[in-house]
Amino acid sequence: MNQTQSFIQSNRDRFLEELLDLLRIPSISADKAYSEHVHKTADVIADKLKRIGIETVEICQTAGYPIVYGEKIVDPALPTVLVYGHYDVQPADPLELWTSPPFEPVIKKTDIHPEGAIFARGACDDKGQMYMHVKAVEAMIASNELPCNVKFMIEGEEEVGSPNLAIFVKENVEKLKADIILVSDTGMLANDVPSITTGLRGLSYVEVEVTGPNRDLHSGLYGGCVANPINILTQMIASLHDENNRITIPGFYDKVVELSDEERAEMAKAPFSLEKYCKALDIREVHGEKGYSTPERGSIRPTLDVNGIWGGYTGEGAKTVIASKAFAKISMRLVPDQNPDEITALFKTHFESIAPASVRVAVHPHHGGEASVTPIDSIGYKAASLAYEQTFGKKPIPVRSGGSIPIVAMFEKVLGLKTIMMGFGLDSDAIHSPNEHYGVFNYFKGIETIPYFYKHFTELNK
Amino acid sequence: MNQTQSFIQSNRDRFLEELLDLLRIPSISADKAYSEHVHKTADVIADKLKRIGIETVEICQTAGYPIVYGEKIVDPALPTVLVYGHYDVQPADPLELWTSPPFEPVIKKTDIHPEGAIFARGACDDKGQMYMHVKAVEAMIASNELPCNVKFMIEGEEEVGSPNLAIFVKENVEKLKADIILVSDTGMLANDVPSITTGLRGLSYVEVEVTGPNRDLHSGLYGGCVANPINILTQMIASLHDENNRITIPGFYDKVVELSDEERAEMAKAPFSLEKYCKALDIREVHGEKGYSTPERGSIRPTLDVNGIWGGYTGEGAKTVIASKAFAKISMRLVPDQNPDEITALFKTHFESIAPASVRVAVHPHHGGEASVTPIDSIGYKAASLAYEQTFGKKPIPVRSGGSIPIVAMFEKVLGLKTIMMGFGLDSDAIHSPNEHYGVFNYFKGIETIPYFYKHFTELNK
User: Fold this and answer.
1) Start-end ranges of CATH 3.40.630.10 in chain B?
2) B202-256+302-369 belongs to which CATH class?
């Protein structure tokens, strides 16, 4: 891969500029107002794939945003790597907290990124990380060093739960035939502590609506007389955790796989400083399920968080109103072997059951996904580990992450393929938050590391 | 008052048109964007007072919106009625629930208002009710039947807690010298069940802010590890009521005046149908403090309601975020002898004390006001009662209302004057809600009844 690495070094400026251009398109999939931009991004990705030498490129229409597919078959007898990524991004609000506009990428130095980091929505999640693969493959093709076949499947609905990806995958099992799936949509422990994500949490996401009186009421005339939907909603949500911060939904923990003491001891070896953690977030204390450490709470334990709540008067000043309705968006992170559909059903049944007769409650499921685990003795993991060792000079640590890429479980079910999560982001990159950024170091380290994965994966498969 | 009544009858169309014009100005005091309109409304009121023959009219500047003052002194030896009202209105949102635009008044018939009702923000609260006084005084002056002196004090900040009125009143004790204060900013039981408000609840209004991590976080990476400010806020709010729906703030009930069994029995005589009440609001059950009836809960008992709550992602679709902050607006309705400053202080201390160490909490007091009671054996009450008897053909029922006009207690303290609350609105008028309206019957019944109050009040004072 020497030619490939030289090619990367001599094209650094262009590789960076291309990413910045991609980040300028506000491809927010959750908000229909940005539809045109999401579509445009798909076109740009397809064009990029063509330009680097991917022979077959298609923009595959779905009921939602299209999936960009591409493939280059070097030799059908060789292994095939299927790259998955997404070109859509999270909404950027609250906009006022961004120090520079979310879709005008700029490179700024930070303590963690002395070489500079690219500040923009999607810089890390996932345009930056997805585009590393495009550039790594470009470098291998241009250097005549692509050792195996490669397929790309880049979607535009990951941030809204990939509602159409499973349909596409099921309808294209033959086309997507491969030996391994490669994804960069996770993080690593630190720039000098490389790690590979071997586990992901699942997700169940619901929106709840509590309705009291049929119209907003004057809180003086009706206060104390009727159920206030906001007060009731707070009581219902509060009751979802007990005093040990365990979730109270009956049956919620029934299928949770408990780790052995040995496994927990192994996990505890990963470097973690509670003091630094609190300092970075400016909190005095952490908060979570009794009996588990913070890294455990964030990876091997299921959670329930309110992601949004609203109701009544939220403008300037004071309004003495009892709202007719109150709403919340609630997500639950799941662990093996919790089934998201089952958990959503348990939530709905429980939430409806705890509603007092003075209100009506509706639970609308948004989307879900199963948890997944990648074995560290697999060829895919070993190839990735060797690749990191080559570029970082040290072995990566296998880590179970708290995030969810629900489609990883779906890939395994439908395609029978394991996914290797070579994430180069950092927890501090503020993905899904204002001021999302991605280290320039990380971007290029990814581009440099990926070709070695192709090399080792091909060799280990011989 | 025969000439006066004839004058009213022959000017009905004009009186109605003038109110509609007034309702077209969006004088929302809570939102600075409407500042120009609030000021314009003050100018219009001042102009109207001049046109009806009020001799001295001033637009008195304050630190906020101006107070329109006017007086007509018939004879210093005669009693003086001081009319208070407000020309500002509540915000109109949620706009999408209005069946016609809030500032384009239209007259529509309803079951309760077969003669039609004026649909517009401020129709009842308080432009419609305030303007009845302007028109009633016009009729008396035009008919040469004004039996005593009259002063007007119409403010533009009632809906934001009258922050500058007390200052104005304190600085103008001599100017505001009067024998009684007359206010129409309340309601009556029904169009065929006239009533006079003899008690008002006080108010304490706060905004709370819960801060967790220093930035929005990805709920996958941090979910379960850090305190989610929204979850914590729901727990804190939920804990403010116990299982009997009593407020748990220590000391909250200490000064509450408990009514005797006799007083409660007297109250229970007012017509009230729980079935109709629930049906009108489309609720299956009422909800409130154990041991009290619905009318009691809404008048003689203090309450705590969330008037607004917000935090995290509230847009379309799903966003897996842990918000850095969560907010709520909370108001407490108070009864004699609860002191709003004391209650606000008790709330603040308690709310801060129940915050877990994993978050920071800020409590910002908005405004408050004391509860008040008007004795039914006073000359003012008797004059009002006689006036209603004359126009409705039956004695009005004295009623303690759940609403708050905090300034009524302030008037008593600073000016030593009792306030008579001749309200002509109905509970169903949807004040502070979408589709606020005011019966055409009620508007004119008010204009017709007010002159008789002047007559009887002057006579009873002889």
Assistant:
1) 2-200+371-460
2) alpha beta
